[in-house]
Structure formats: structure tokens, C-alpha cells
Amino acid sequence: MNRFELVRAQTTTQARELAAEMPGSVLKAGGIDLLDHLKEHLVEPPRLVDLKTIPGLAQIAVDKDGTLKIGALATLAQVAAHAAVRASHPALARACGEAASPQIRNVATIGGNVLQRPRCWYYRLESYKCFKKGGDVCFAVAGENRYHVLFGGGPVFAPHPSNAAVPLVAYGASFVLDGPKGARTVPAGEFFVLPDKDPTRENVLQPGELLLEMRVPSTKGWRSAYYEVRERAAFDWPLVAAAIAVKVEGGTVKDARVVLGQVATIPWRSAAAEKALVGKPLGATSAEAAGKAAVEGAEPMSDNGYKVDLVTTLVRRTVASLA
Ligand SMILES: Cc1cc2nc3c(=O)[nH]c(=O)nc-3n(C[C@H](O)[C@H](O)[C@H](O)COP(=O)(O)OP(=O)(O)OC[C@H]3O[C@@H](n4cnc5c(N)ncnc54)[C@H](O)[C@@H]3O)c2cc1C
């Protein structure tokens, strides 16, 4: 690991100024993914600007209209344990509560979680100059790709790694960003971007911008759930994940959001699975149909065809749990 200095910001403006003052500086939240990057020589910043010392950025509150406001510095453990989050947005509480290990969840922040970089082993090895590192090849295509994507791949095929991002997109959350040009709010569904335009990026956060808060609309009238499948029950990223929210009136689904994790370079919204649910009674038949529809258009790679069956079963079970 190269030498770097650590500075502790007291305000968001100061954080941006401290980062701008020394080119190549990076922001630190919990530091879980960042420290991996430093040790793997994927980033070599002269300065880390600690955001954890900024008061008020870790708050979780509920507005009068039921909107959940989660500060980007709230830890995964705080989000998972928060009574209001568990009651109104159970898919988000569960996704945060199942990520990583208890030790990591006590340190990792929800902002850092959605901003963590892909886990692809080629990206994580300094010696492989892949698309993500400004190269011109995705080594997973002809190489080891059993954890890679089914949808939206190319030229990068590494899945988006964040648990929290999946329900945030399903709930129609917005992200509040603060940059040199002022604050802006971006819908979660537009925050994460496919790699076709710029393979080095996973989202629209600009250099010098901070993620301040996530606003998650009220779920009044909606039911929601998050489930994932992992290789082992201990800490690890899921193989596939699903966050599903449905609005049911008179026993019929009026609106549905089906978002899949670990199968695309972004949290993947399945329009076909949503269509299979809307207008139908919520039950075993619609759960079966949604599971099958969720894999329409899947393009498995050489070693990840098993994910198609996992998604089918996971979506079916998640819908059934809501029925
Ligand atoms: C063994 C292990 C298992 C794991 N399993 C899972 C899992 O199952 N599911 C899952 O989702 N994750 C998993 N993770 C990943 C872990 O949850 C993330 O690394 C962590 O959430 C990152 O949060 P952080 O606060 O530590 O971010 P940091 O490492 O501090 O930051 C991550 C990145 O975001 C930037 N950043 C952070 N906060 C802000 C902000 N507010 N504004 C602007 N930029 C910011 C940083 O500059 C950095 O580039 C696992 C990690 C490990 C080590």
C-alpha cells in the first residue's frame, strides 16, 4: 500500500474542498471497499477525505408523508435494524441485513454500498488491464465467468455488486448528490448506468460530487420483499437477488416492480416479470409466470447458465411470499 494522508472533514463543503485541493484524493466512508482498492493498488490516492466525521450524514428519518430519508453515512447495520425501515421498507432492511458479515455491516455505509466497485476477479487483480481499468478487453468473456451477468452485458460483464441498490431501485428511491455546481437529485433507476458508453463507470456520480442522502417514497398500499441466493450462508455476495414490490387492490396487482441483483451491470428491472404480475391476482399462478418471464432475454455466458434457474425460482418464491 502506498503512503497517503487521512483528513477528517467536518462539513460536506470542506470535504469537497479537501478532495479538490490534492488531485487524486478519494472520499472515504466505511472504507471497506476503498481499503481493498488501496491494498490491491487499484487506486493510489495521496489523500483520503473521511466523511464519517461530518455530523448529520448518518441520520435515518421518516417524513410526514412516509418518505424515508437515509443519510449516505448510515451503516448497513443501522438501516437493517431501524424499526421504521423494517416496518415500511422490509426489502431494504433485509438487503442491508444480509450483506457481508456483522462486523462489516457495522462499519460499511449504505452510500458506500451502492458505490462499491464490481467484484470481478479480473478487475480486482492489478495486472489485468480490463475495460474497467481503461483497457480494451473483458477477460471474463473468454475466461472465468460463473458469477457474471445474464443481461445488459457488453463490453463489461461484471455484475453490479450492491445489495442495497436492488430494493432502492424497486422502491423508486432518489439519490441526493452535492457537487461543485450545487445539489441535484437523481432517481435510483437512472443513477446506475450500463457500461456501453463508458465502461469504467457504474453510475452517474461526477468527480467531486458527494452522495448525501437517499429518499425512498412511502410504500402505503404496497407489499415488498427481498430475497437472495448465496453459495454459503456466511458472508459473501449473493449469486442472484430479487427485490419485488407490488401494489394490490381488491386482490389484483395494480402495479409491480421487479428488480434483480447480480445478473446485470446495474440493478436489473424486469419489465416482462412486472407485466406478468399486473392485472392478475397475486398467487401461485402469477408467481410461476413472473419467474419464467424474469429470465426472458437472458444471455448466459459459458459458465453461468445456472443463474437462469436460480432467477426463475427466486422470483417465483419472492412473489409467493407476498401473496
Ligand atoms: C467479505 C465481504 C463480503 C461482502 N459481502 C457483500 C454482500 O453480500 N453484499 C453487498 O452489497 N456488499 C458486500 N460487501 C461489500 C461491502 O458491503 C461494501 O464494500 C461496503 O458496503 C462499502 O461501504 P463503505 O462505507 O465501506 O464504502 P467505502 O469503501 O468507504 O467507499 C466505497 C466507494 O464509494 C465512495 N464513497 C463512499 N461514500 C461516498 C459518498 N457519500 N459520496 C461520494 N463517494 C462516496 C468512496 O470514495 C469509494 O470509492 C462485502 C465486502 C466484504 C469485504
Précis, in short:
The chain is of the alpha+beta class. The chain contains 13 helices and twelve strands. It has a five-stranded antiparallel sheet with strand order 4-5-8-6-7. A four-stranded antiparallel sheet has the order 9-10-11-12.
Kindly describe this structure:
The protein has helices at about 10-20, 30-40, 75-80, 85-90, 90-100, 100-105, 110-115, 120-125, 165-170, 190, 270-275, 285-295, 305-320; strands spanning about 5-10, 25-30, 45-50, 60, 70, 175-180, 180-185, 210-215, 220-230, 240-250, 250-260, 270. The protein has about 325 residues and is of the alpha+beta class. The protein has a five-stranded antiparallel sheet. A hairpin with a 2-residue loop joins strand 6 (about 175-180) and strand 7. The longest helix is centred in the C-terminal third of the chain and has 17 residues, at about 305-320. The relative contact order is 0.13. Flavin-adenine dinucleotide binds near residues 115, 211 and 235.
